[in-house]
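User: Hey, my collaborator sent me this sequence without any context and asked if I could get a structure. I don't really work with proteins. Can you help?
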Amino acid sequence: MDHVRGLRSYPALQDWTNSKKDGHASNAYLLIRSTDTQKTMSALKNVPEIQEIIGTTGDSDIVARISADPRENLLESVVTKVQGMPGVLSTETLPAFSKY
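Assistant: No problem. I've predicted the 3D structure and written it out in structure-token form, which is a compact way to encode the shape of the chain:
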């Protein structure tokens, strides 16, 4: 859980993680680098908070859309479930603040 505490220290995320529950799920996009994209994508299907999995090219191999309520669960899902998966080299979490 040190990763979660570290995420909370970023000013841009402090309001987001500590905000009052409004009944809406929190969303984020997760950029994932993996040693085996197909195996990682298959494993990601077993994470209930992941709503969409997209294979891509560039710096990241996979983009996953995650959704959880409360926001704390979103960060815990990223840290404990995805970053700990075999083959996952790195992740970058992009919180979704607004949707138009």
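In plain terms: The chain has four helices and four strands. You can pass these tokens on to your collaborator as they are.
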